[in-house]
């Protein structure tokens, strides 16, 4: 039985995601070993995600794969740089792609925490009375800060909460529709980099990932762009700087049509 080395970050969510990939490989007869890596994104907890940029949690894995230190690396796909040279990853089946407003019941929403320009733009449109404040840290840290009174609500990814089996009777979860807050490209998708990842690839999810990444590139959306792109298998949704549009996806030309619609909304 062949043993493979799986690269992963050491956060609770990263290890849950790595375990899902390991289970898929084990069903094919592989033995798996985790190689836990501390990334520059983990090392810099003061700067915002928009400041440290895409790749902060994933670049080191690309080097380790190239040097043969890993067989595959497992990431949240939305953390990967959106450049075309990083398109060749496999995917596990997608989880719930939506964002979710996490709040304390009965609390007036005056301060909402998020580190995402995309989420900030959506929240400013949905809750114009609220101040949007930056936040970093894992789910437990963010929830603790909210309960301490630093925030009245947070915006998090539904997929992460579900994978962590998050349960807390003290907080209220209010999922945001994809038309109110378009998810980040590849949100809810676990990416497996490395050739061996194709053995466990989920084709429909991989197709959605590539469409969304193409859309994000066209709309010039990195971590600082405030861009969301989401494909539900039929409709492609996009958000840029708070503006939202959608088209029925019929190939690459649909992305161009969507970009034009976004500009029309701005006009």
From TrEMBL:
One of its GO terms (cellular component) is cytoplasm. The keyword Transferase applies. The keyword Transferase applies. GO terms for molecular function: hydroxymethylbilane synthase activity. Pfam families: Porphobil_deam. Transmembrane segments: none annotated. InterPro entries: HemC, Porphobilin_deaminase_N, Porphobilinogen_deaminase_C_sf. It catalyses: 4 porphobilinogen + H2O = hydroxymethylbilane + 4 NH4(+). Its EC number is 2.5.1.61. Signal peptide: none annotated. Residues 4-195 form the Porphobilinogen deaminase N-terminal domain. Keywords: Porphyrin biosynthesis, Transferase. One of its GO terms (biological process) is heme biosynthetic process. Its cofactor is dipyrromethane. Tetrapolymerization of the monopyrrole PBG into the hydroxymethylbilane pre-uroporphyrinogen in several discrete steps. NCBIfam families: hemC. Belongs to the HMBS family. Monomer. This is Hydroxymethylbilane synthase. It comes from Candidatus Egerieicola pullicola. The lineage of its organism: Bacteria, Bacillati, Bacillota, Clostridia, Eubacteriales. The gene is hemC.
């Amino acid at each position: 039985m062949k043993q493979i080395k799986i690269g992963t970050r050491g956060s609770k969510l990263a290890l849950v995601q790595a375990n899902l990939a390991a289970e898929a490989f084990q069903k094919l007869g592989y033995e798996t070993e985790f190689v836990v890596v501390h990334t520059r994104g983990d090392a810099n907890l003061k700067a915002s995600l928009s400041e440290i940029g895409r790749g902060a949690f994933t670049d080191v894995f690309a080097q380790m794969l190239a040097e043969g230190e890993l067989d595959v690396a497992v990431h949240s796909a939305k953390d990967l740089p959106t450049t075309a040279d990083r398109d060749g990853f496999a995917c596990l089946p997608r989880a719930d792609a939506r964002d979710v407003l996490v709040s304390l019941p009965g609390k007036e929403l005056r301060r909402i925490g998020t580190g995402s320009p995309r989420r900030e733009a959506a929240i400013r449109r949905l809750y114009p009375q609220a101040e949007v404040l930056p936040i970093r840290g894992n789910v437990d840290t963010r929830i603790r800060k909210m309960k301490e009174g630093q925030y009245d609500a947070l915006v998090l990814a539904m997929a992460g909460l579900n994978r962590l089996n998050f349960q807390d009777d003290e907080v209220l979860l209010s999922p945001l529709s994809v038309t109110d807050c378009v998810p980040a490209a590849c949100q809810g998708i676990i990416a497996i980099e490395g050739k061996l990842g194709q053995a466990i690839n989920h084709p429909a999810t991989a197709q959605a990932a590539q469409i969304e990444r193409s859309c994000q590139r066209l709309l010039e959306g990195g971590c600082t762009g405030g861009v969301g792109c989401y494909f539900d298998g039929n409709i492609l949704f996009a958000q840029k700087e708070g503006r939202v549009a959608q088209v029925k996806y019929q190939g690459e030309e649909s992305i161009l049509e969507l970009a034009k619609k976004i500009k029309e909304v701005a006009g």
